[in-house]
Amino acid sequence: MGLLSLGTPLPWADAKQYADHVRQHGITQFLNIWDRLKDRQGDELLWGDEIEYMVISLDEENKNAVLSLRQTEILAKLQPLTSEIDANTDSSVSVPTFHPEYGRYMLESTPGSPYTGSIRDLLSVESNMRYRRNLARKHLKPNEIPITFTSFPRLGVPGVFTEPPCDPADATSSHSLFLPEEITNPHVRFPTLTANIRTRRGSKVAINLPLFIDERTPRPFVDPTIPWQRNIYPEDPEARNGAALNDHIYMDAMGFGMGCCCLQLTFQSCNVQDARRMYDALVPIGPIMLALTAASPLWRGYIADVDCRWNVIAGSVDDRTEEERGLKPLKENKFRIPKSRYDSVDLYISEEWMNRPEYNDTDAPYDSCIYDRLRKHGLDDRLSKHISHLFIRDPIVIFSEMIDLDDNESTDHFEVRPPSAPPSNIQSTNWQTLRFKPPPPNSPIGWRVEFRTMEVQLTDFENAAFAVFIVLLSRAIMSQNLNFYIPISKVDENMHRAQIRDAAHSSKFFFRKSIFPPASSRASTASSSGNVTPIDGVNGINGHVHGNGNGTGKKERHLRNCFPPIPPPEEGLPNGSVEAEYEEMTMNEIMNGKGDSFPGLIPLVEEFLGTLDVQEPEREKFASYLNLIRSRANGSLKTPATWLREFVRSHPAYKFDSVVSQEINYDLMVALDEIERGVRSAPDVLPSDYKGGEADQGSLEKY
Ligand code: ADP
Ligand code: MG
Ligand code: MG
Ligand code: MG
Fold first, then answer.
1. Ligand 1, closest atom to CA 49?
2. Burial of 465 by CB count in 10 Å (0-12 exposed, 13-18 middle, 19+ buried)?
3. Residue 504 counted as domain residue
4. Are 20 and 27 within 8 A, CB to CB?
5. I need a surface site. Which of 196, 261, 523, 599 has the fewest CB within 10 A?
6. Can you give the pLDDT at residue 232?
7. What is the b/e burial string over 373-386, where b = at least 16 CB atoms within 10 angstroms of the residue's CB?
8. Whole-angstrom Cα distance, residue 261 to residue 102?
9. Number of domains the chain is built from
10. CATH code, 178
11. CB of 46 closer than 6 A to ligand 1?
């Protein structure tokens, strides 16, 4: 999210009257973009990561590690600083940008300008991330640390877990029994989002994560830390009335989910067709990478039996009414909606022949009036379904000053456009595993795809490894016309499996068996992007021409972004049973290969790297990234989630009762920081030659 300017947000009772207005104008705004930019061609690969941090305040005397709620002050220091760097450095340095996030203890950073597809840029990602972390660190108090950690283990415990300490009794937006109002970014958008989700739903959100039952966990486990007797909001009796399940960790507020940190990547495609193809190809990769990056087994002072954040966030913004959730017959609402607005992708969108209609096999309700309008305007069936499916949701935050907008100038009813304020928008409050991002108006930015499932990793070495891996995989997909399609119902099942304890090593995932297109469809990669007209001087940007298969055999030092459409197979379109196309594979098989029958994603990426002009030291760096991922997949390195669970269970103060005490949490936070900096080794999760973030201070000295 960009900078959020102030306005007057409407409470839900008022906002809902404008829902149709916003939807109608949101579609007009989308169509305006579509008309202007649907034929935009030849954009180069620009891409970027988003990394989220928690600021932890260490109280050594009391052995307590708590969340520092100083986001506003810290950003006030970091944001002007980055413009200063901007002014003082040569333009080849990517100047970091820091953004606010939902949690008042969170920071988000992005490279100030996107990376290109040059090998040099790929190899700058890690030091770019490190630079950002060190910059943030430098502007914290001496007892504060920035950690890239998915879920804070003691968020919402009784007692002190924030600095300054706050009382949940004043949780006016969330009505939470556990999280104080002050946990939320004070910008009016965030408390309004929180309150309006709760009011639209008709009750507080309710998340129940299965508890990890240890040797001495009382059974049934009835959580003694839930303040059942508190009756501040008499209209919210849910915990008492059964919203809190036994043997579960109960969470009742948006902050538990939106207060998590993750690693996201956005890629610019050559054109809208390629963006749609890439979006689809990455849909089945989403749950696989979620399981492989799993890093959040500790919640509200307990060990959970899940490893990932996803379902917590989905539950934390689930604004569906009882009618929409299927608990009551439809009366006030139009649709029964199977999923939260934060959940996995429901529809593939590419028009390529590989995308068989059978793959969209789940119940994905869509607004038929909007669908008809899009079709009449000339949009194809698949994109019309995608958009009209997103538009079954209501806009949650509407600012009274921003209801009537110029649909030619603004897209604010469609999506947020940093740095302006988001008045209300449908696209940006549909938080799915992938996001298809149309170009913002009046900007040089093209059609993009965002990959959103990964949990943030403890070190920038790991974050860079996963970021670079996905970029390279995306090139392997596009250059070899790889086909990863499986039915969406199977991707959903994989999302479910990915979150179960130790999924990366104990679970199997549905994956497509045959990922290469028929021989007659492979030929397309042999020609370079000759059929597209470059804009922005793209192909000449670094004095190179895109395309590694241009007939000369010359290897490139720049990733190509434009790919011709995949020719349909001469033998006709596939019409066999979809069920025969996939099988269950282990993580190791998916990533590292399965004998002769499946190549594995890492070998595919290695093969792709072999087509590039990579020099020796560069090759080593790429190899270290792939080794990390390979080792995670084959179990020789643990996932962060497994490591974290074991850290707690082997702590001398642990009582085998599933509780993450203040002392254990303190020692864990200190350990995480030391591991990241390289002053403590963690051979179970990191390669033995990991040097630590302090080894690379870059040009930080000056600032
Ligand atoms: P959001 O929070 O809406 O997902 P952010 O602005 O936080 O978006 O992050 C967007 C990411 O996309 C950043 O890493 C940025 O560097 C990158 N980016 C910026 N411009 C482009 C572009 N033209 N193509 C691809 N990525 C881009
Ligand atoms: Mg962002
Ligand atoms: Mg973010
Ligand atoms: Mg994002």
1. 14
2. buried
3. yes
4. no
5. 523
6. 65
7. bbeeeebeebbbbb
8. 10
9. 1
10. 3.30.590.50
11. yes
């939260």: which residue's tokens?
Answer: 340
Per the structure, the complete domain to which residue 89 belongs is given by 16-393+424-515+591-703
Is 401 part of any domain? no
Q: What span, in angstroms and rounded, lies between the C-alpha atoms of 367 and 384?
A: 10
Residue 22 within a domain: yes
- Confidence class for position 91, pLDDT limits 50, 70, 90: very low
- Residue closest by Cα to atom 7 of ligand 1: 1
Query: Is residue 657 exposed (0-12), middle (13-18) or buried (19+ Cβ within 10 Å)?
Result: middle
- Type of residue found at 580: A
Count of helices and strands (H, E) across the chain: 21, 17
Residue 5 lies in a domain: no
**Contacting residues for 217 by C-beta, under 8 A, at least 6 apart:** 211, 656, 657, 658
358 class by beta-carbon count within 10 Å (0-12 exposed, 13-18 middle, 19+ buried): middle
Largest CA distance in the chain: 76
pLDDT in tens, 26-79: 999 999 999 999 999 999 999 999 999 999 999 999 999 999 999 999 999 998
Question: Ligand 1 centre from 112 Cα, in Å?
Answer: 9
Residue type, 271: N
- Counting ligand 1 atoms within 8 A of each CB, the residue from 110, 128, 189, 279 with the most, and so the one to mutate, is 110
Measured from the Cβ of residue 146, the count of other Cβ atoms closer than 10 Å reads 26
Residue 16 has φ and ψ, to the nearest 5°, of: -65, -25
pTM above 0.90, yes or no: yes
Element housing 434 (H / E): strand 434-437
Q: Whose CA is nearest to atom 5 of ligand 1?
A: 1
